[in-house]
Amino acid sequence: MELRDKTVVLTGANGGLGQELARQLADAGARLVLVDLDQDSLAKIAGRLGTAKTRHCYLGVDLSSENGLTDLANFCRELPSGIDVLINSAGLNRFALLEDSEFDATSKLMTVNLVAPIMLTSMLLPLLRSKEEALVANIGSALGAIGNPGYSSYCASKAGLARFSETMRRELSDTNVRVLHLNPRVISTTMNSESVNDLNRQLGNKSDSPEKIARILLGKIRNDQFGDHNVGWPERLFIRINALLPALVDRNFYKNLPLIKAAASHEGTRIKAADHNDLITVLEATQN
Hints:
This protein has helices at 16-27, 39-49, 52-55, 66-77, 103-129, 152-171, 194-203, 210-222, 235-244, 246-272, 276-285, and strands spanning 7-11, 31-36, 57-60, 85-88, 134-139, 177-183, 186-187, 207-208, 227-230. By secondary structure, the chain is an alpha/beta fold. It has a single domain, classed as 3-Layer(aba) Sandwich (Rossmann fold), CATH 3.40.50. Helix 5 (103-129) packs parallel to helix 6 and helix 7 runs antiparallel to helix 10. Mean pLDDT is 91; it is low at 275-288.
């Protein structure tokens, strides 16, 4: 797909990956609809992209609310050029033991990571189907294919996004709308707390820069490489082993469980020290 002069709706545009996606999409000649919570931050990002007043627009909405999704859909319906691409990049994360889960935080995470992409795609599908070619790109995670201790809610949400992407790809296979699902490994953004970064260093887990993941995604789009894609080695191998021989992966996690539980307990203590509003703020700050 040629991105020049295509209108791209990008959620999670304030995050580390979102900002880099916005920059590379703008450099490719796309018109952007930048979406996130903080409208002032979006305005600054649009300003840095150049010709913001005539080419790019932005909307601050809460994707965890039905009203926010409806406002975004209505905004897109008023665009004179319609939309060609939807990139569901917004996401929340929390590293914690299952016993430290809280209802409001878990509900918000599941809504932003899974319900919002499903409902937003549904709402915007008529606009996408009106174009000669169109695309929905969902940013998943390697943890959607591998259940990782300390990430019960996040893994569940990303696994759900993977199955949604797969189902949508098949359901829309007789239309002009293509579906791309990208599973990065750890991305070096503020989504990961210092506890998580320290744990990844101890376990030898590798990470990628937002620039690299954005470049990979745009490369897949330009080369019409739709479908499901896992990023990173040995993560791609690990995903295959997990699917075929999960007991081997169980043993690997069991070996590292003391480290993981200690880090998750430390993170849980930090979050418990905050009040309820601070907890939601922490989650919102970790968007992609």
